[in-house]
Recover the amino acids of this structure.
């Protein structure tokens, strides 16, 4: 994390220095993640999510001089996004929606275990799958750098290490190393949340093929 | 819905199983991406501009500029004497200025443009300019114009929107490869594409002169001129969605410390609505409510949403009318 914060400080400095390429790279990396972050906190209202994320970027850019690197830049953006969500509800003179996120549920571990061996006849299964989708989505979005992307390319799109390497313009060894670090980070993030059973996440490491 | 992966070679891998079972992450809509990118880019460029000013680089640049200007006066006196005819007030995406060295990216809003300046927006870009008499000129994506003089423009290709509120009768002359437009205090859009000319009049009246043959368009009309001289007329409402691109790039006025009535009037005009107050009391109320805050980067209706949320006034849109009411009288 310290390394990524160091990188984040450099990115912030480049943007403050007027580097539009750095700004655009950051925007393309953060926009989909912040959009999903806002969407689940705004009762899945796409227009509200768009407006809140727009406000988030404008506020973050205006206050970028204040970023000191105490946390990852994405975490800092998320905090600004939370404030924008609160402002959104305040403007509409409504209490913030009672969004119950899976992170807050004590039985999240059971949800994950159910996913491994789902009881397909139970009516709640669809709801649970949605919850798991959100948990995994939030975890992938919270991973540093391109980790979330490479995991999705590998396990959703079924891309090979060679294909990922080509997509990232790096060598196969670098791509394999990146994929291993991404898997480790994902496993650690899930485990740190305390949701996954030790057995689920401690199975023998399989290097990506 | 779990996504079907292309391969299952490591089914027992818990990381792979979990990610596959969860499926692909939700992708944001493309139009949301474009809108937020446009606003964020504008905010970034403003920030950049302000930082340069604060660091004193602008002062240094001014010295260099003055030196260059002196050289230009000495070498190219006629060009250097061109009067300023417009100021760039808002940029979104890529916008370029024609120079002797070719097209160069326009970085700063506040750029002052002399007569003869050439400007173009690239796909995805747009720009808003304040003309010298206060008229607002807006350029849609993929548009090229020349600011020929204080009231003369050349639209070479693409789409422009002009909001010109004068009642003096002194209008703008806009030359295009397919005819020349003259306005008389109006809001209108002009588009040149593949040799065809399209005029949409939102307010007032515009005349198109094509080789001496003059055709007039009135508010609410769309005129499509084909390459052979034919004209097709159709209707277009002042609040039609077709005007939205011009609303999106509208330069937002500073409303901090201004009355709610001023904001309401601006939003009604920008969105093509007739303004109506529920009662004289409500109208009076709107003039006494003073707004505080920043509406930069917000579209007109989003600005109105944000500002009125803190007041006891609400707006209701019905057809082409925007009605302002007291909050407790709003219909369900």
């Amino acid at each position: 994390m310290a390394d990524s914060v160091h990188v984040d400080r450099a990115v912030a400095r480049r943007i403050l220095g007027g580097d539009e390429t750095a700004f655009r790279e950051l925007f393309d990396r953060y926009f989909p993640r912040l959009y999903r972050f806002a969407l689940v906190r705004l009762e899945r209202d796409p227009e509200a999510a768009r407006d809140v994320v727009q406000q988030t970027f404008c506020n973050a850019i205006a206050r970028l001089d204040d970023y000191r690197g105490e946390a990852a830049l994405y975490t800092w953006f998320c905090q600004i996004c939370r404030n924008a969500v609160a402002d959104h509800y305040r403007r509409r003179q409504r209490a913030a929606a009672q969004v119950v996120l899976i992170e807050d549920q004590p039985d999240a571990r059971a949800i994950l275990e159910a996913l491994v061996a789902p009881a397909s006849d139970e009516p709640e299964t669809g709801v649970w799958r949605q919850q798991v989708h959100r948990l995994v989505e939030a975890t992938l979005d919270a991973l540093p750098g391109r980790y979330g992307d490479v995991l999705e390319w590998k396990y959703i799109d079924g891309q090979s290490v060679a294909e990922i390497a080509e997509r990232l313009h790096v060598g196969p060894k670098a791509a394999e190393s990146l994929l291993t670090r991404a898997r480790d980070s994902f496993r650690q993030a899930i485990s740190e949340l305390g949701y996954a059973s030790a057995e689920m996440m401690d199975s023998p490491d399989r290097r990506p093929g | 819905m779990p996504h079907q992966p292309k391969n299952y070679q490591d089914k027992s891998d818990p990381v792979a199983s979990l990610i596959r079972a969860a499926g692909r992450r939700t992708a944001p809509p493309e139009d949301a991406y474009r809108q937020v990118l446009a606003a964020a880019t504008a905010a970034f460029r403003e920030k950049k501009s302000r930082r340069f000013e604060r660091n004193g680089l602008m002062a240094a640049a001014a010295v260099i500029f003055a030196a260059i200007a002196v050289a230009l006066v000495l070498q190219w006196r006629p060009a250097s004497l061109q009067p300023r005819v417009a100021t760039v007030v808002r940029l979104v995406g890529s916008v370029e200025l024609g120079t002797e060295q070719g097209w160069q990216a326009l970085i700063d809003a506040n750029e002052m443009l002399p007569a003869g300046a050439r400007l173009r927006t690239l796909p995805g870009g747009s720009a808003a300019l304040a003309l010298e008499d206060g008229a607002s000129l807006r350029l849609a994506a993929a548009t090229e114009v020349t600011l020929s003089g204080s009231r003369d423009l050349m639209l070479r290709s693409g789409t422009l929107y002009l909001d010109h509120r004068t009642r003096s009768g002194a209008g703008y002359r806009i030359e295009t490869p397919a005819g020349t437009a003259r306005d008389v205090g109006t809001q209108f859009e002009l588009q040149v594409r593949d040799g065809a000319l399209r005029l949409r009049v939102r307010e007032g009246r515009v005349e198109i002169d094509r080789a001496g043959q003059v055709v007039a368009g009135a508010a609410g009309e769309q005129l499509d001129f084909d390459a052979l001289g034919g004209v097709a007329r159709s209707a277009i409402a002042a609040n039609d969605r077709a005007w939205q691109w011009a609303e999106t790039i509208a330069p937002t006025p500073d409303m901090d410390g201004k009355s709610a009535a001023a904001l309401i009037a601006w939003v009604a005009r920008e969105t093509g609505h007739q303004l109506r107050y529920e009662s004289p009391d409500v109208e009076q109320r709107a003039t006494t409510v003073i707004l505080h805050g920043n509406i930069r980067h917000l579209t007109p209706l989003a600005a109105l949403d944000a500002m009125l949320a803190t007041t006891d006034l609400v707006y209701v849109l019905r057809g082409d009318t925007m009605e302002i009411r007291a909050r407790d009288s709003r219909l369900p």
